[in-house]
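Re: beginner question about structure tokens

> Can someone show what the tokenized structure looks like for a real chain? I only ever see the sequence side.

Sure, here's an example I had lying around. Input first:
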Amino acid sequence: MIRIHDLVPGDRVRLTNFGETAVLYRRKLLSFGLTIGTELSIIRVAPLGCPVQVALRETHLTLRKDEASQLQWERV
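And the corresponding structure tokens:
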């Protein structure tokens, strides 16, 4: 199990579990197309470590580490 704070630019990962994320945050991620099994690439991490920019199905999103800390990933 990998957490978002373990990821570095260039990593390619797949979402395996939403963990204990808040329902509203989970719905927000689902509306952006981030579902279980979705693969994404880590594009960059801000200088202070938050947020993290990811590429997902031709879309770029930024995830705050505190909100996304419960998401569980696996390397692809």
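Each token stands for a local structural state, so reading them left to right follows the chain. Residues 23-31 form the longest helix (9 residues).
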